[in-house]
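May I ask you to review the protein record following this short note?
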Amino acid sequence: MVTRRNFLLGGAGLATAGALSQLDWFKALKQEYPNVLMLIVDDLNDWVGAMNGHPNAKTPNIDRLAKQGTLFTNAHASAPICGPSRASMMTGLAPSTTGIYGHIKDDDIRAANDKAAHSIFLTEYFRKHGYYTAAVGKVFHYRVPSGSVDDYGGRVKGFGPYPEQNYVWDDPRTNTDWGPFPERDDQMPDYDSAHWIANKLNEQHDKPFFMACGFLRPHAPWHVPKKWFDMHPAKDLFVPPFLRDDLQDVPEIAKSVTDHPMMPTTEWAIENGQYRNIVQGYLASVSFVDSCIGIVLDALENSEYAENTAVVLWGDHGYHIGEKDKFAKMTLWERATRTPLIIKPPQSKGQQISHKPVSLLDLYPTLVNICGLPKNESNEGRDLSPLLADPNHPWQHAVVTTYGENNHAVKTERYRYIRYEDGSEELYDHNIDRDEWRNVAREPGYQNIKTALAKHLPTENAAWSPKSFYDGNEYFLNKTIEAGASGRM
């Protein structure tokens, strides 16, 4: 058996492998070190069957993976927006450390600030330790940073294909629209990405691999072929509960931070008879991407790597589909921060469910440990291996989500505490209020709870990196101008 030291020496280890031929050495290497297959889904909330997030959800392939590994039902993004969420996960650093609060070009991540400059991307870390690395689709925010993987299959620009004219919603500041388009699955970029990774899984690899596939749907526009809409007849769909005066008890800054005028509101959707149609479009998009995930899972199961590959699936953040009068991400409420996370180690115990609060930031150290690699000491996340061994393992940690400088949400098993940069607060008790309709931050009985939760807030709040940008609403447009950056969502 090849020693771990030899593996970590990379090519130099071959010279110390003694009588082993190069072929035998690589065979031993592949047996000792697991492969990694990472599936990333854009804008995916809990509307998957395994999470019981929506009664009309149809996701047999995600559900299949959930039955084979550990499903984390209380997983949250480091940021409720694609760019900073992915940058955080891939660097192992929180947004409050890097100052990456908005979108950022992939090649600019390490130029964000001094701490980001010393980060090693997750793909690079595995590559550094002898892995072949491959990626396709949206893995970081746009593509992948230059030189961060051995083989990149690319991604289409934008989130098309697009019809000649939008079907319903036409605002140039957003991709939001819904309706059946195009005609066939093979016209969709995610279909191509799935087959690209599937083909890689069918190849012979002479050393362990780390492969990542980033799917675009259900990111808007909610355009997928008609058969996926037909799977979810609009007239039969459950519509999420909506409270018209939901925001009356939140501070003014919360309304400013979460004001997204380019998106439809729930009031508009109800008045124009579009609420169920939007729900249909989102569910159809989720079912479509689930089918693409199935292509990849089938390829893995039929490959020689099936028994020695860790599989992880995650969404980069959640999404409001009508809750709190919005169809958007970009808030610090539960709907925008919570997302599915499934981890299936090579030697999985089978189906497990953990309700402990975990972060996507925890993925980096967890995968490093699963694969037997040395720790990256700069990682700010926590290794989830204890919860993979026992999903009910004592876990006193909280999860932090950040949206802009010094705006944070702290999530435990029971509470969500939000503090904004002006000191304004929100607090929700999920034991009695899963919809977060009642802000109890000012109620006397919860003062000690707030004090305890506030201890989890970051002690460092890096200034906005001039390399990150966001113009999604007036509040963040002002922040962008202050930071000296510019750009479109």
Q: What stands out?
A: DSSP finds 17 helices and 16 strands in the chain.
